[in-house]
Amino acid sequence: MSAVPDIQLVDLEKRFGSFTAVDRVSLEVRAGEFFTMLGPSGSGKTTTLRLIAGFERPDGGRVELAGADVAQRPPYERDVNTVFQDYALFPHMTVLDNVAYGLKVRKLERAERRTRAQEALALVRLPDVGARKPAQLSGGQRQRVALARAIVNRPRVLLLDEPLGALDLKLRVDMQRELKRIQREVGITFVYVTHDQDEALSMSDRLAVFNEGRLEQVGTPAEVYERPANVFVAGFVGVSNVLEREGGRFTVRPEKIRLLLGDADADGLVVESGTVLDTGYTGAATRYEIELERGGLLIVTQQNLETSHDEARQLRGQRVRVGWREQQMVAIAEGNAT
Questions:
Q1: Membrane-spanning residues where (predicted)?
Q2: Tens digit of pLDDT for each residue in 138-174?
Q3: Burial letters for 49-85: b for 16+ Cβ neighbours within 10 Å, e otherwise?
């Protein structure tokens, strides 16, 4: 892997009037990474992507691609391609011509354009749709065509702006697997924007959590999930419990907590008592909402290995014990970590 990052952002700023969309963001994306920018709507992640692509010009800071500052270069002078949620395919062109369009702009010979476009369609597992028009394809197929069109130019970096947001849940999960497979096969650096926490955790080598234009935390999915930097990250990336104990603020994930019924062994655990306010059955697991006697509301998630929905409901209003290992209780800060 190259020592020079494919992308380096240094104190990047972007303002729209009095609103600061990107507030002194600094991060690097390593060559060959699947890097995700995660955050709620308006957090600055898409604007940061557009600054990398060249669709927006920064008001401060640097955008470096492979070590070169490109902040003032237009998009066509940057070795990146972008895939959007709305596909942006030409409706009057065939699928093959859509995929080959960028090669035509670069004035490659017709035979080479055709060969490379067919290879790109085969890579996204659509080898037989080249003669169709985009309107004849499903949403998932159109997204694959958009991906093939972006990859065919063999860019150094591929930018993906919530590309799966318009797909239904099952198709979105299938496409997540496909994107990871394609990224591994082509070896291109992927920078992926999403507000979906599960998507970010399951697909990324590393991820950056954005909030109100600033970076809250950068790390591997396990680092960000298991050791959130602050209250925002703990609450936004998955579900977490935030408790105040002994003058400090801590978080513990719902699946780390054990529901101790009857005389269940609590050896080695931090144990507290509380009352079950509600239960929620989700099929594979049951979610318990527990009001702790020491203060605080706790969400506990238990796999349904043996417990039935009716058995779980009978615990409503009952006093129970809960326990977790001390090392699973992570100290967190109040606000922004950077």
A1: none
A2: 888 888 898 899 889 889 999 999 888 777 888 888 8
A3: bbbbbbebebeebebbbbeeebbeeeeeebebbbbeb
